[in-house]
Amino acid sequence: MSKLYQDPSKSVQERVDDLLARMSVDEKIAQMHALWLFLSPDGDHKTRSDQFTGASDPEKVKQMLGFGLGQITRPLGTRSVDPREGVKALNRLQKFFMEETRLAIPVMSHEECLSGLMAKGGTLFPSSLAYGATWNPELIERVGAAIGAEARAVGCHQGLAPVLDVARDARWGRTEETFGEDPYLVGVLASRYVRGLQGEKRDLLATLKHYAGHSASEGGRNHAPVHLGWRELNDTFLLPFEMAVKLANAGSVMPAYHDVDNEPAHASRHLLTEVLREQWGFDGIVVADYVGVSLLYQHHGLAADRAEAAALSFNAGLDVELPGDDCATHLKDALDRGLISIETIDETVRRVLTEKFRIGLFDKPYADETGIALQTPAAVDIAREVAQQSVVILDNDGVLPLKSGLKLAVIGPAADDPLAMLGDYSFPVHLIHNDKPEEVANVVTPFAGLKALCGAENVTFAQGCFILDERRAGAPVFPGDVDDATSLEQASTLSTRLDLIPEAVAAAEAADVAVVCVGDLSGIFQTGTVGEGSDADTLELPGVQQRLLDAVVATGRPVIVVLSSGRPYNLGGLESKLAAQVMTFFGGQEGGTALAEVLTGAIEPSGRLTLSVPRNVGAVPYFYDHKFKSSGTPIARHFGSQYPFGHGLSYTDFAYEDVAVDAATAGIETGEIRLAFTVRNTGARAGVVVPQLYVRDRLATMVRPVKELKAFGRVALDAGAAARVTFVVPVDMLNFTGAEGARIVEPGFFDLMVGASSADIKLRAEVEVTGGVRRLPRDWRMESRCETAPLG
After folding, report:
1. How far is residue 532 CA from its own chain's centroid?
2. For residue 787, is pLDDT > 90?
3. pTM value?
4. What are phi and psi of 343, to 5 degrees?
């Protein structure tokens, strides 16, 4: 006879209450952690053990599984596994829990899915910076839905994405994982990604990371401390998380490795409980970043041992330790020592079980081994569309779009290397850390894309140089620090070869136009030049790429630089000598096709920067929404950006005209600002314009940025066509964190600026907000609207 919790006709709360009452302490603790296993279809599962995860005794693991398990870590994403065999192995593990444990509690499976499902055969989408450069929330929602479909197909219940870190320091390796430097834009795009990934039923959990402030690390170094006060943390770094929780009902949150003002995120009750659950109303589960709980005793020095580290995290509001069981299995010891209460354990397990019931795991525990659909034509089309819309033209002297019949020399280390098209959390790149190569034949490089579109007879290739002579595992995750008295010498892995440059010069001289493809090789922990743990001390092109570029430009041939990278780079002062400069970030498997289509004009360029390009590394950290005094006194020569946030060129021209604000005043309680203007395509070909609305608070009780993005849109216009664009901005969005630490809106005058970028302001207006100072409620209006009407 089935038990109440096994009856799908009962409510989730009734089922959780019944199951929780039946569980032993060991069975409860088992739900509070994961295990990282190499699964096998025959049930002979092996424990993963390495420097990152530590080691688990196989016999102990087998005994532990008898109590159940909260999550299984990346069953298909850890190594190269045929998807069908991987799903069979996952089902075999699930069968054990459903048929051979006392309570038959199914396990949740999680995978990475930042730039596509990180598993063999998954569609390789562009990087998050490319997502951001589209300025297209609807498209990013479709991306999330496509990735979610692939994740569900392999039995995944939780995806560890998106990244909501607001980029602040281009030296930080994980910059490539962000949507950009503006908190509002990050919040909008991340919310749409979450909606797409989770679907209407929220039967697959998105995971907001890295909560919070991870991107403002000291020196742009991975894991480093973050020096932020509450107001800046709340206004800039928490805003995207708040938006994704409230606008998209995000199912999970992952705290970050760092400490903020000396408090590690994994031990912050303020962030994990008071802000996230009590103030925002978050109702999902909080999962640890990998070994984040362990760092409390290994690095941060807050805990004396594993039991105390676990107690600190779970008391703060953590629900599941990932990726393994380093600390959570010591909770019985913590319980005996009075470090944690059984009530806290029950509360935590209740949240875990609630989510398992909500996603339907108890009623449908097995994945369909015959229904696996990866790399579908529809998913590949979406990946290509993102790559197309994310190409940003920074400079163009008229060489673009390329005329047909030109002889092209495609040169450089990123010109024909499939791995140069992929971000750090794509499956082939991630496996480099394990020294395991993965098939990348489906990745279209720039050389392949141009050859296919322009004709093989018109396109030649020259390597020019390498970024790295070989790809191999780099720096270890641990120890993560060195004694100040230690002499640390880490040899650079960057290539120093110059012998291939003469061949590249000859190729350029024999061509009409040279397309020089430079940038990064992404990879975690210094398996690349950017990515998690691959931080930088310069914004010069890695290795000898600048030497290559100098030599090709010196030929006098028109040079188009294509920068595929995870951060912006300076080009040694050559920017003004180039025929064109293009940024593609990491374009994914369709990146080469998309680039060729944009360069030839088959697709109109519409990408816009979401990351300012600092003039040099001395300007770092630089971001457009800085304070007035950020430039120094007098203004520092290195300050600023030649290519600012929002910048991107088209193959046509647009005029901005006739700005009007519906009303000169807006009430502080329920008011909206309605600003309208006309945008007109004055060129000879169709194009896409991306108008942006920036606001400045003239007088406030706290220092405010020089401008802040509050609305944006994408408008496609035929040659000679025009549209009336209206931005509708709720007054709530003019808030900031006041003296008492809460979001407030103050009355006063606000400058309204319509621009083609944050620096290219076309139209100006003003509005006065009237009323008394208002403290915002929980459900404040967080998103603006863009309304477009064609004009005859």
Report:
1. 12
2. yes
3. 0.97
4. -65, -40
Spatial CA neighbour of 598 closest among 610, 607, 589: 607
The Cα 538–Cα 685 span in angstroms is 40
Nearest to 506 by CA among 474, 570, 461, 466: 461
Q: Is the dihedral of CA 756, 758, 760, 764 positive or negative?
A: positive
The answer for residues whose C-beta is within 8 angstroms of residue 158's C-beta and 6 or more apart is: 71, 108, 109, 110, 111, 204, 205, 207, 251, 252, 287
- Residue 178 to residue 572: CA distance in whole angstroms: 26
pLDDT at 58: 63
Beta partners for residue 749, in sequence order: 768
> Is residue 734 a contact partner of residue 728, using CB atoms and an 8 Å limit?
no
Q: What is the DSSP letter of 272?
A: I
Average pLDDT over the chain reads 95
604: its two tokens: 């109109």
- Kindly give the pairing relationship between strand 722-730 and strand 785-791: antiparallel
Whole-angstrom distance, CA of residue 140 vs CA of residue 702: 34
CA quadruple 91, 92, 97, 100: dihedral sign: positive
Write the Ramachandran bin of 406: left for phi over 0, alpha for psi from -120 to 50, otherwise beta.
Answer: beta
**Per-state percent for the chain, helix, strand, coil, to nearest 5:** 30, 20, 45
What are the structure tokens assigned to 663, written together? 């009303």
Instruction: Please give the full DSSP string across 192-215, using - where no structure is assigned.
Output: HHHHHHHTTTT-SEEEEEEETTGG
For the stretch 371-377, contacts whose Cβ atoms lie closer than 8 Å and that sit 24 or more positions apart, written own/partner, are 371/153, 372/83, 372/84, 372/87, 372/153, 372/154, 373/149, 373/150, 373/153, 374/83, 374/117, 374/119, 374/121, 374/122, 374/123, 374/150, 374/153, 374/154, 375/121, 375/122, 375/123, 375/442, 376/123
Cα–Cα distance measured from residue 571 to residue 540, given in angstroms and rounded to the nearest whole number: 7
Other beta carbons within 10 Å of 724: 16
pLDDT in tens, 325-371: 999 999 999 999 999 999 999 999 999 999 999 999 999 999 999 99
Using a 10 angstrom Cβ sphere, with 0-12 exposed, 13-18 middle and 19 or more buried, the burial of residue 537 is: exposed
Predicted confidence (pLDDT) per residue in 577-602, tens digit = 999 999 999 999 999 999 999 999 99
CA 527 to CA 436: how far, in whole Å? 12
Q: Which helix (H) or strand (E) holds 170?
A: none
> Is residue 460 within 8 Å of 409, Cβ to Cβ?
yes
